Amino acid sequence: MNFTAEHRALADTVMKFVEKEINPFVPEWEAAEEFPSHAIFKKLGNLGLLGLKYPEELGGAGLDFSYSMVMAEALGVAHCGGVPMAIGVHTDMCTPALARFGSPELQKEFLAPSIAGDVVGCLGVSEPGGGSDVAAVKTTARKEGGDYVINGSKMWITNGLKADWCCLLANTGDGPVHKNKSLIIVPMDAPGITKQKIRKIGMNSSDTAQLFFDNVRVPQRNLIGQEGMGFTFQMLQFQEERLWGAASSLKALDRLIDLTIDYTRQRHTFGRPILDNQAVHFKLAELRCEVEALRALTYRAVEMYVSGKDVTKLASMAKLKCGKLSREVPDACLQFWGGMGFTWDNPISQAYRDSRLVSIGGGADEIMLGIICKLEGTLPKAVK
Fold first, then answer.
1. Per-residue confidence (pLDDT) for residue 379, from 0 to 100
2. FRET partner for 101 with CA separation of 20 to 30 A, picked from 149, 268, 308, 339?
3. Start and end of every Acyl-CoA dehydrogenase/oxidase C-terminal domain (predicted)?
């Protein structure tokens, strides 16, 4: 990617926001298992950070996708994973299809206030019966009069407890599983919606919910694009989600390595700094190389995406590599912190808990491998 002065200014703005508005409050929000999303999103909206890639007529900046990735990477300086994830869901996971395929009326009603930070969005794809197998979702939206009547449940929904609207994937027909689904905007105050909090081992500052839909009625005009195109639209959204996930991990992983270098330089065993042990400084050097390799892969994928190319394979590779490094780096660093790394409030243990999700959410590692193998032509014929 060719970083301009505008890219660098954006990164600086986002990092200053994180240092002032997020990091001082992370311990409080982690303990509360939530953060004031409406207040934070409104501040982000006031800075013009929630619609970087969206049209100016809707309040966005009208920039290309590379600016969203610069913001994602800059959010990695946060001292937790939950708040950046919640922001990313709003900016790059529940809104891309609405911005690309939604009607002008739907965009004005839901996208414009999302860009302004007046409302919070969430994405409803995963269900209790499965997450990565998108074609297997069971939630239905049947036509009745001028409405869709929605029944079903969604699971592991980031922002689910506080969201004002949901980009929902539901079955709107009985045809083939890849052609019977639609994306529908569902106001979260609609009668028939109930929410149940999900407690997690990490990402605690981000609220997560199971959502239940019992004869929930929404106007058919809330359909995004054409009926039956939901699976395709969601696959397109996944490209941006997976690139966002890879980009957001870069500074976060670098930070863990930096913290570990500082700690092992100061901490002495057997009369010398822990860092002086070859096993330690060699491993940290190796980890740094891996993060830089991920950065190069992510930047290349973003550059291709901005130029209009299909980056399904590269985005899947970046997501896969990101997931693996998000497990390997905190685990290796925690080992070098010893007992201190095993304490709850340690920054490495925080990352150890938070980052485990990366290999699961947005498509598990195994799903990424399957996509890559399919595009490489290496899947057995019976699987294809």
1. 83
2. 149
3. 228-373
Assign 356 to helix, strand or coil.
helix
Euclidean distance between CA atoms 134 and 151, whole angstroms: 17
Q: Which residue has the tokens 């407890």?
A: 161
Q: What separation, in Å, do the N-terminal and C-terminal C-alpha atoms of the chain show?
A: 34
* Torsional sign, CA 307, 91, 158, 342: positive
For residue 109, the 8-state DSSP code is: I
Query: Which secondary-structure segment (H or E) carries 255?
Result: helix 230-266
Q: Where are the beta strands (DSSP E) in the chain?
A: 121-124, 140-144, 147-158, 165-171, 181-187, 193-197, 208-219, 268-269, 272-273
DSSP string, 274-308: GGGSHHHHHHHHHHHHHHHHHHHHHHHHHHHHHTT
Residue bearing tokens 């149940």: 196
Cα radius of gyration (the chain): 21
Q: Are 171 and 140 in contact (CB under 8 A)?
A: yes
89, 110, 91, 101: which is closest to 185 by C-alpha?
110
Instruction: Identify the CA nearest to 114 among candidates 126, 132, 97, 131.
Output: 97
Q: Is 241 a catalytic residue?
A: yes
Polymer length of the chain: 384
Cα maximum dimension of the chain: 79
- Residue 361 phi, psi (nearest 5): -70, 150
5-39 per-position pLDDT tens digit: 999 999 999 999 999 999 999 999 999 999 999 99
Q: Considering the entire predicted model, what is its pTM?
A: 0.94
pLDDT digits (tens, 9 = 90+) for 191-214: 999 999 999 999 999 999 999 999
- Which amino acid belongs to residue 270? F
Domains along the chain with CATH numbers: 5-120 (1.10.540.10), 122-227 (2.40.110.10), 232-376 (1.20.140.10)
Contacts of 77 (CB under 8 A, 6+ apart): 15, 18, 19, 23, 251, 252, 255
- pLDDT-derived band at 134, boundaries 50, 70, 90: confident
- To the nearest whole percent, how much of the chain has pLDDT over 90? 93
Beta carbons within 10 angstroms of residue 308's beta carbon: 7
Q: Which of 360, 308, 362, 356 is nearest to 329 (CA)?
A: 356
